[in-house]
Amino acid sequence: MLAKTIEYFNLIYSNKNFIKYSKISISIFFYIIIINIIYKNIGFLSILRNINYSYILYLIALIFLRILIKSAQQQYLYKIDSIEIPLLESIKIYIYKLIGNNFMNFGSIYKISYLKANYNIALTRYMKLNTALTTTEVFVLIYLFLYLLVINNVIFLEIQTLTLILLIPLTIIFLLKYKFGLFNLEIFKNIKRFVLLKLISLTLLFHFINLLIYKTYFETLFLNKEIIQSTIYYLVGYFTNLISLTPGNIGYFEFIQIQAVNFHSLNVSEILAVSTLNRILAYMIILLLFLYTKFAKN
């Protein structure tokens, strides 16, 4: 019975049409949700009318810097296998990925195909390393998120509980590696120390710039919020975007932020205003850089 059930699910997920129509259905579902939310909270437009335009150029510069940092981070990830990709080409790959993810939801497929076709990158090794680094990053940000919720009196955890939460994943990794031999660290072998340090530094800088961007969004819209609230808002968005359900996670991102209102204390209108400003500026810069790469190519 179990074997037949597994075979049935494998048949379903191997069906491209099933996956295609499932994605379309999910997207429509969240589009309907966000349209309904906007209709009921149309007052958020008044927040957008009250913009401090002196911050706009500053935000554009920060978003552009974020793209440069992320491109450089990916560039050093390629260097792990001694593959030298120029920064401008890394920017192009990242921009095309963003275009794909935000408008068609196929950015990662484009990136993988490009790297395989042009550099014959060992995608299995690259994806394992990328997953390992992302997992480490997620763990660190989860603990930061919990810490901020505690000091903001959103949740109540004793230091012993926080320590236990920290030790659980470390214990699991230790057991998988040394007791069962399932956690293979071979992917980290022969990685140059300076490359790893660069990756860590660029990752930290990337998150710092993002925190600065969201804090500036709040100031641009005259939202009277503390830095801890903008940080929690960013972290909720970061965790949400780990799973892409719609192109650009439109609707899904806003829906999750609204469910997390008790964490960051923004109301629905403020969430819609911040999200709209973020999408307008980000899409504008992405499209400008996309046009630049097309023009430079010609």
Order of helices and strands: HHHHHHHHHHHHH
The number of E-state strands comes to 0
The amount of beta strand, in percent, is under 5%
Unreliable segments (pLDDT under 50, ≥5 consecutive)?
1-9, 179-183
Helical residues, percent: over 70%
- Which class of secondary structure composition applies to the elements? mainly alpha
Q: Mind describing the biggest β-sheet?
A: none
Overall shape: globular
Give the number of helices: 13
Distance between the termini: 59 Å
Q: What is the CA-based Rg, rounded? A: 21 Å
Layout of SSEs?
Layout: H1 2-13, H2 16-40, H3 44-49, H4 56-79, H5 87-104, H6 107-119, H7 123-151, H8 159-179, H9 193-220, H10 227-240, H11 252-259, H12 261-264, H13 268-297
Helix pairs in contact: 4-5, 4-9, 5-6, 5-13, 7-10, 9-10, 10-11
3D architecture notes:
This protein is an all-alpha fold. It has a domain at 53-122 and 191-297. 78% of the residues lie in helices and 0% in strands. The protein has 13 helices and no strands. Helix 5 packs across helix 13, helix 9 packs across helix 10 (227-240) and helix 10 (227-240) packs across helix 11 (252-259). It is globular. Mean pLDDT is 79; it is low at 1-9 and 179-183.
In short:
By secondary structure, the protein is mainly alpha-helical.
Features:
mainly alpha; disordered N terminus; 298 residues
